[in-house]
Amino acid sequence: MTQSRAALPLVAVLTGAGISTDSGIPDYRGPNGLWRRDPEAEKLVTYDYYVSDPDIRRRSWQMRLQGPARHAEPNAAHRAVAALEQRGFPVRVLTQNVDGLHQRAGLSARKVLELHGTAREVVCLACHERGPMEDALARVEAGEEDPACRSCGGVLKSATVMFGERLDPMVIGEAMGIAKACQVFFAVGSSLQVQPAASLAGIAAEHGARLVIVNAEPTPYDDVAHEVVREPIGTALPRLLAALSA
Q1: Residue 44 phi/psi, 5° resolution?
Q2: Which fold has domain 30-71+120-160?
Q3: Binding-site residues, please?
């Protein structure tokens, strides 16, 4: 028998880098993570280095131009979350990722809370004007090594929260509200080590949600989870979400 829409549980899905590895985007802290392979790469997304060093900015633009995230496509896990919404479930995604793949998979943009911002846009550090990342990358391809804001000449950066920047307190507040209100909380592909985003799993469990962790490596919240799944995310998450809607 099909559940009525009113009876369906609110499902929150916290997603980290692990959900996008099947799309060709490497994670950061896993066994083969970017920071383990190239510790210097962390400087490219560290605010103080980026603002003070033009060479870091030039390398950062090249990383975005040539990196796999630019042309990445949603994978089965992203599509499974979007399909859950299409089946009528109230779904909210709290993502630590900046790749925009949940939206590209078909999930309503208003259902996605991007905790660390988005790499699909750029922002000027002087006048705060925003624009498409693709426009900035086209300028880099045309020969501008460190494109400046066309409105004021200020430094442009991706509209992501770099290391050394504060997360938007309003976004975090909204995420905490969702964690407290949901009945089911999936933590997917996240090490659950970066605060305050990681604490959302604990908040959900404390407020009575069923906590399911899907991650290749152990996390600090495994002991409070109702279920811990170590299977590949691309097969595990579609199966888990399909069972939820059965």
Answers
A1: -70, -20
A2: SIR2/SIRT2 'Small Domain' (3.30.1600)
A3: 124, 127, 149, 152
In contact, 245 and 85? CB cutoff 8 Å: no
pLDDT, tens digit (0-9, with 9 covering 90-100), for 12-60: 999 999 999 999 998 765 555 555 556 677 889 999 999 999 999 999 9
Question: Domain 1-25+74-116+167-246 is of which CATH architecture?
Answer: 3-Layer(aba) Sandwich (3.40)
Binding-site members for Zn(2+) are 124, 127, 149, 152
51-69 in b/e burial notation, b at 16+ Cβ within 10 A?
eeeeebbebbbeebeeeeb
- Provide the sign of the torsion angle of the four alpha carbons 28, 93, 80, 182, taken in this order: positive
Please tell me the pTM assigned to this model.
0.90
Is 116 in the active site? Answer: yes
Write down the catalytic residue from 71, 116, 128, 207: 116
